[in-house]
Amino acid sequence: MNRIEAQSISGQRDNAIIGGSSLVEPDVIVGFRYHPDCGPAVIGAHAMLRKGTIIYADERVGDYFQTGHYAVIRAFVRAGDYCTLLNHSCLEGIVRLGTGVRIMTNTYIPSRTWIGDHVFIGPGVTFLNDRAPGRVEPMPTPCGATIEDDVMIGGGATILPGITIGARSFIAAGAVVVRDVPPDSMVKGVPGKIGPLAPELRRPCSRQLSIQPLDIWHPNGCNPGASIWPKYWPQQWED
Ligand SMILES: CC(C)(COP(=O)(O)OP(=O)(O)OC[C@H]1O[C@@H](n2cnc3c(N)ncnc32)[C@H](O)[C@@H]1OP(=O)(O)O)[C@@H](O)C(=O)NCCC(=O)NCCS
Asked: Is 192 in the pocket of ligand 1 (CB under 6 A)?
């Protein structure tokens, strides 16, 4: 691993170790010193850290880590290889991500949340870790959710504190998950109703999707080009 070039990041440049072949845009902070005794942020090779990203000290993140703009990762996050955290999403510290975890935009993951391997988390998902903040004394230790391998969580879902979602389960968009979910279940609605998974969805998440080395906006990725305009749009553009 190479120590990051001073001019590649703003501030805290003495407290980050970033693996080779990584790209770090301007206005990225890696290794943010939240405490005088904190250790470095260690990021694997082939990272892509986009403008506005803030990564605290005391991190261990694997290879091919990608952030969108203004992603925030607070201290004591452990993440495997091929993880993605998109724009404005936040890992509140003391969070575990397995391999190939893909987290879309505007998602909130509080501390003490465990995420398994190849989990997909749609946009605007909210995880919670405190059942009744400020209303219980003494204050209980926050307890986040446990999400087992190959779970898919749809956009806008809410996962209550301490919930376990079993492997390969599918959480529909907008569901509020209020109780533990057995493996291979579908959860829909508010409060989330647990049922069996449709046969066509009863499978692990695709490894081709969860282990993507680059996304389409990566400078070394495939340029989407003019073919991106959906055929069903009323207007197409030539340039
Ligand atoms: C849950 C989902 C997979 C559809 O599942 P499905 O069982 O194939 O659902 P269908 O479209 O056949 O609809 C079956 C019923 O579920 C309802 N339903 C579908 N999606 C629902 C949802 N998110 N919440 C509540 N009910 C839903 C339908 O209205 C329908 O109800 P009805 O039987 O009373 O008419 C899909 O709607 C969904 O939420 N996908 C997640 C998409 C997403 O968040 N992607 C993130 C990346 S962009």
From this structure: no
Phi, psi (5° rounding) for residue 88? Answer: 65, 10
Q: How far apart are CA 8 and CA 25, in angstroms?
A: 7
**Angle at the Cα of 58 from the Cα atoms of 36 and 24, rounded to 5 degrees:** 105
Using alpha carbons, select from 175, 230, 163, 22 the residue that is nearest to residue 186. 175
Strands 2-3, 16-18: pairing kind:
antiparallel
pLDDT digits (tens, 9 = 90+) for 37-74: 999 999 999 999 999 999 999 999 999 999 999 999 99
Domains and CATH numbers, the chain: 1-100 (2.160.10.10), 104-205 (2.160.10.10)
Q: Is 157 in the pocket of ligand 1 (CB under 6 A)?
A: no
Which residue has the CA at smallest separation from atom 37 of ligand 1?
Answer: 172
Following DSSP, what letter does each residue of 107-161 receive, concatenated?
Answer: -EE-SSEEE-SS-EE-TT-EE---SSTTSSSSPPPP---EE-TT-EE-TT-EE-T
- 4 Cβ neighbours under 8 A, 6+ residues apart: 13, 16, 17, 18, 22, 24, 30
pLDDT digits (tens, 9 = 90+) for 161-199: 999 999 999 999 999 999 999 999 999 999 999 999 999
Q: How many CB atoms lie within 10 A of CB 36?
A: 5
